[in-house]
Amino acid sequence: MEASTVAPAHESSAGIPERDRFPFGRNWAGFLELLDESRIREAERSLLAMLGQDRISGATFLDAGSGSGLFSLAAMRLGARRVHSFDFDPDSVKCTEELRRRYFPTAEHWTVERASVLDADYLHRLGRWDLVYSWGVLHHTGDMWRALDLVTGLVDDPGQLFIAIYNDQAWISRFWTWVKRIYNSGWPGRAAVLSSFVPYYVTRGVLVDLMRRKNPLTRYREYQRSRGMSALVDWIDWLGGYPFEVAKPEAVFNFFQARGFRLTRLTTCGGRHGCNEFVFVSGTPPAGR
């Protein structure tokens, strides 16, 4: 069963005009053309590494900002009892619906909707979930701290919250905000950013690998294994991803601790640009879980 819930624009945009937002869903549509079994398995592996099989199998799984839908698919394949995916970007919703059609066309326990994580009424109607997953999403809403606060109400007691938030690098983060605004200013800005940074990323990687006497292609295979994603798709996502907000790991930790959550796993990006990953637990896990 599929549904479509369109959140009111004033609750979704956080004051960011649509023309200034990066079209994440269009990027993900290209990624789906490259999706294969190995990438799906790597997405499963990354979920298991952070959450554990005993936490996913038989659990309810909420994908808040589903993007391509890859991790909703992974949760389904890992035995989640129920999966619900939603995203504000209509093209991302279409991507998630496409994966559902390909792999679980008759599954009534995987539902997909269009909605905003800033729509408090919508979130209230969703109720509470064993696992709430929002990887690299909430910092793109235009109101990150409100989004972080709202998702706490989605986590059951006990339950887990798995989020990833861009690392705060002070002036470097401000530089990247400027780059992202240029990218979203129109096709000349987009062309300027891509033609400047993509060759730089490729050339830097080749030079580093040659100095280390490594095959330059190995880094892309390893990247795919680490996230199940394409490096090029993630580069474009990074360069264009606006709105854009950041936070230091300790700020996120303190925020959730004040709301009764306990940090159980943390993977940082080592102070560089990228995402810090957090798994928080609400309440006390029952025996055997």
Describe this structure in words.
The protein is α/β, with parallel strands linked by helices and 289 residues long. It has two domains: 9-169 and 243-282, 3-Layer(aba) Sandwich (Rossmann fold); 171-240, no CATH class. Helix content is 47%, strand content 17%. The protein contains 13 helices and seven strands. The protein has helices at 9-12, 24-32, 37-51, 53-56, 70-77, 90-103, 120-126, 144-152, 171-183, 187-211, 218-227, 231-240, 249-257; strands at residues 60-64, 82-87, 110-114, 129-135, 155-166, 261-267, 275-282. It has a seven-stranded mixed β-sheet with strand order 3-2-1-4-5-7-6, with helices on both faces. The longest helix has 25 residues, at 187-211. The relative contact order is 0.16. Residues 1-13 have low confidence and may be disordered.
Strand content: 15-25%
- Overall number of domains: 2
Number of helices: 13
Main beta-sheet annotation: 7 strands, mixed
Shape: globular
Under CATH, the topology of the largest domain is which? Rossmann fold
Mean pLDDT value: 87
CATH homologous superfamily name of the largest domain? Vaccinia Virus protein VP39
Structural class: alpha/beta
**Overall strand count:** 7
Order of helices and strands: HHHHEHEHEHEHEHHHHHEE
What is the name of the CATH architecture of the largest domain? 3-Layer(aba) Sandwich
- End-to-end distance, in Å? 29 Å
Which residues sit in consecutive blocks of at least 5 with pLDDT less than 50? 1-13
What would you report as the Rg, rounded to the nearest angstrom? Answer: 18 Å
Helical content (DSSP H or I, runs of 4+): 40-55%
Spatial order of strands in the largest sheet: 3-2-1-4-5-7-6
What is the CATH C-level name of the largest domain? Alpha Beta
